[in-house]
Amino acid sequence: MQKNPGPNKTQAFLDICHQHQLKITPQREVIYRELLKSDTHPTADTIYQIVKGKYPNISYDTVNRTLLTFAEIGVVDVIEIFGGAKRFDPNIKNHHHLHCIQCGKIIDFQSRAYDNLKVPKGLRAKFRVISKRVVLRGICKACLA
Ligand SMILES: [Zn+2]
Ligand SMILES: [Zn+2]
Predict the structure, then answer these.
(1) Which residues lie below 8 Å from residue 125, measured CB to CB, with a gap of 6+?
(2) Global pTM?
(3) What pLDDT sits at residue 5?
(4) Which residues of the chain have pLDDT under 50?
(5) In this predicted structure, what is the pLDDT of residue 133?
(6) Which residues 6+ apart lie within 8 Å of 73 measured at CB?
(7) Cα–ligand 1 centroid distance for 58 (angstroms)
(8) How many angstroms separate the alpha carbon of residue 134 from the centre of ligand 2?
(9) CATH code of domain 96-144
């Protein structure tokens, strides 16, 4: 299942790159496009395997560095998985995750109720929350079947 990369997202990507004076090379563009198409929050290695098919000379290091640069300028999000490789998320809007503990897939979902979760009072004194994301861990439909 692949999401259709909307023209808006690509435009936002180009705008942010431009703001940060990041040159848009064909390689960078293809890395971003492949990330956008994927809905499983791939690792740098997964993206590398796909991009290599189109650019056989590209190195893993280039792909990894490009993804980290994207994260730095804010066009993608990095998801740290405890004990696992970093995963990249092209969806930088507020959303939540379903994490399948069997296949490792991470699926986006929206929930107004979770967006509006209140930060417990005791925490506010010692921590300034800048974003909230709920992660539900479990087993996806494909793995259950
Ligand atoms: Zn699964
Ligand atoms: Zn996500």
Answers:
(1) none
(2) 0.82
(3) 54
(4) 1-2
(5) 92
(6) 16, 17, 19, 20, 22
(7) 30
(8) 11
(9) 3.30.1490
pLDDT value of position 10: 83
Surrounding residues of ion ligand 1, Cβ less than 5 A:
100, 102-103, 105, 140, 143
CA of 20 to the centre of ligand 1 (A): 37
Considering every ligand atom, which ligand is closest to the CA of 89? 2
Ligand nearest 77 Cα, by number?
2
Q: Hey, which bits of the chain come out as E strands?
A: 77-79, 87-89, 96-100, 106-109, 135-138
CATH fold of the domain at 7-89 = Arc Repressor Mutant, subunit A (1.10.10)
Domain boundaries, the chain: 7-89, 96-144
Parallel, antiparallel or unpaired: strands 106-109 and 96-100: antiparallel
Ligand 2 center to 19 CA (angstroms): 24
- Predicted pLDDT of residue 3: 52
Tell me, what's the pLDDT at 12?
A: 86
Distance 145 CA to ligand 1 centre (A): 10
